[in-house]
Amino acid sequence: MEIKLVTVDDTKSEQIKRAIELLKSEKQAAARNGNEDKANQCWRELEGLELNILFIQAFNNLKSKCYRQAWIEFEQCEIKYLFISKNSTQEFLNTSRLNFIQDKVVKFQSLYPYCLFCSPEFKVGYYSCSICGHKVRPRSRCEHKKGMLYNGELCLHEVHEMEMLGISLVTKPVQKYSVMHDDSTLDFTLIESLVSNLDDAFEDWNLSRTKMKFPIERFSRVSKDHMCPCKSGETFGACCIDKNEVEIPHIDFIFSKPLPSDAETITFPY
Ligand SMILES: [Zn+2]
Ligand SMILES: [Zn+2]
User: Fold this and answer.
1) Cα of 105 to ligand 2 centre, how many Å?
2) What's the 111 CA to ligand 2 centre distance in angstroms?
3) Does the N terminus or the C terminus of the chain have fewer Cβ atoms within 10 A?
4) pLDDT value at 267 more than 80
5) Is 43 exposed, middle or buried (0-12, 13-18, 19+ CB in 10 A)?
């Protein structure tokens, strides 16, 4: 069965709903009958469909400038990809577009201006296996491995008697959703200009990071207490003010189709 799954409307189609219901009932039946391979295959297809749907939603949120919502969905895509990829072949990851999605998720994330996150610290009483309920201890483990698939179900370690110890601010978070910024103060123009040139979530694109040199005269209006345009994190006065040229990190987007010639102009915020 061919399913069209590209737009948000496609994700809500009767065809998709029926396909998901069918896979769920096939998975249950296979698990009941002890047909582990079939149950696992149904799990993969279900998760693959859900990951495609999540990615389409995230792309749609970028188009609507709901950047935070898309950020949260991209993280969910990443987590799903991690578990699916542990339990499937490269061929499956390619034909279900999951490798494409993961590649784009990482690239979209790299274009976000977020750099500060909060990270909760917990004390954990104990973990238990989600498949058999076994209390996991250093010298007492069950036969199930965390993140692996058993009869159509993923083995996770459930946390018990969790105690919150505190919160710290970090730049590389374990959970990416805990962004500490007010989006209205941030610049999303990179993502905005990228997605304005993409017709749908599965159009291919790439990016290359380079540096471009600009003569110092172009920065005559930057005060010496302002952050340096080279993005070193220093002030202009302490960094590039005495150089002849300023090197600015630059991102080139590479599209699979030719763009109208006015689409690529460089604007300076100074
Ligand atoms: Zn177990
Ligand atoms: Zn500088």
Assistant:
1) 30
2) 21
3) N
4) no
5) buried
**DSSP H/E element including 158:** strand 157-160
Q: How many angstroms separate the alpha carbon of residue 242 from the centre of ligand 1?
A: 64
**Residue whose entry in the numeric block shows the structure tokens 């690239």:** 107
The two three-digit tokens of residue 91, written as one number: 């061929």
- Average pLDDT of 155-177? 93
pLDDT at 132: 97
CA separation for the pair 79, 102 (Å, rounded): 10
Helix axes 36-63, 98-110, angle to 10 degrees: 40
How far does residue 235's CA lie from ligand 2's centre (Å)?
Answer: 7
Q: What is the pLDDT of residues 62-101, one digit of tens each?
A: 999 999 999 999 999 999 999 999 999 999 999 999 999 9
| Distance (Å) from CA 110 to ligand 2 centroid | 21
Domain spans of the chain? 8-110, 117-170, 204-263
pLDDT of residue 1: 57
